[in-house]
3-phosphoshikimate 1-carboxyvinyltransferase
Amino acid sequence: MFVSKYSNPEFSPYDDDSVPETSVPGNWPAPTVSHALSASLSLPGSKSLTNRELVLAALADGPSRLHAPLHSRDSALMIEALRALGVTINEIATGNVFGPDLVVTPGELEGGSSIDCGLAGTVMRFLPPVAALALGPVAFDGDHAALRRPMRTTIDSLRALGVDVSDDGRGTLPFSLYGMGSVAGGEITIDASASSQFVSGLLLTAARFDQGLTLRHSGEKLPSMPHIEMTVACLAARGVIVDSPEPGVWVVPASPIRAIDVWLEPDLSNAAPFLAAAVVAGGTVTIEGWPASTTQVGADLEQLLPLFGATATRGDGALTIDGGTGVIGGTTYPGIELDLSTGGELAPTIIALAALASSPSTITGIGHLRGHETDRLAALCTEINALGGAVTELDDGVRIEPRKLRGGVWHSYDDHRMSTAGAVIGLAIEGIEIEGIDATAKTLPQFPALWATLVGEAPPTSDTLGLL
Ligand SMILES: O=C(O)C1=C[C@@H](OP(=O)(O)O)[C@@H](O)[C@H](O)C1
Ligand SMILES: C=C(OP(=O)(O)O)C(=O)O
């Protein structure tokens, strides 16, 4: 039997003889715990806020300082792309273990570049409208895994705004556009049912269009509303007041975007697997620096994790989840019925917890996760079922039946939230090896180091936390 070096078989209620015999080189053995947790962690800045503030600072009327921004693959791709478009971005060391502050100085936007979007939805959906303001051609491409993410709405909306876009008709990366130095703006209708980022991308730049923008969403659903509200709030902080006269309509006035200094909040969606660990292992996990109020959908974890029998407490700028004795200590919790359309990026963690529940769960409102870093519904079904689970895909979600799980290789599909969902299950199930833990570099390069701290394996050091 393969036994993770962190595991203690005595405490696993899911012991099974069919775990793999040997470890696969390069895979990350997910730590299994045999004790209740008592961890307090700080996390780096929010991906969604950092990449919005980078874009807004690049379009602003002077230099902006970003304090405590995220430094990860997604933010690095955004920084490189903005530099290629003529924006100056300098680092200022502050002693923050998660990396330097950034000073963003706008410049005249120039074309002639090729932008690597990697696998970052925020780069591929936020930057084409910015590039349309540049003078000259700008090409957009990305990772192989990115070439299936929906981009048709971005392409069509730019064309509706009069921008010259060349693509191969598939509605995905790669494509290119020819910026004319300005965009007239006006009124357009788009279908953003595949991603809220189509709306956010247009809103972020629209104040710089000659006539601003009236944007209408026409489609059967609109996922991730909190992320659109985050965009509107970031614009408001820079003096651009977006009116929403009715649901699905936004009016952005032509207006300067003010240069301001901003403090980035920690990434609350990246807190999800750490806080969920308390549910599985028992004991407490505290995330420091939890904002008193926020536009991040990760704030919903305070209400979501108690659905799994945990207790959430806020105080002293922190959120603590107490999982009692946890799954490994014998706690059972019933499955849940949940519409997660507002917080799709929390779904992989929630589904991992549901896979350890004692009765069935149905998670809906997340059909659009098929267009995320991977088809997350298919990936979660495949990986949980390969461990002995019983997850089925629905039109817009998944149904999870309780099953005794066993160890095995958990594939990440280049998706950071698949890697971390596997780690959550791995706390209770011996012998789970994560293939592709490096995917966590997309938004949290320190994940393996922080997870080791969480389970009490190693204290954090500037070497382990500062890695990029
Ligand atoms: O605007 C953003 O920062 C994001 C919006 C959401 O995208 P979708 O609406 O495509 O789910 C979310 O899932 C993603 O992680 C980040
Ligand atoms: C969907 C996600 O990312 P992206 O910003 O690449 O869309 C995510 O982080 O869960």
Observations:
- The pocket of shikimate-3-phosphate (ligand 1) is lined by residues 48, 121-122, 195-197, 200, 223-224, 227, 344-345, 368 (CB under 6 Å).
- The CA atoms of residues 119 and 195 lie 15 Å apart.
- The radius of gyration is 22 Å.
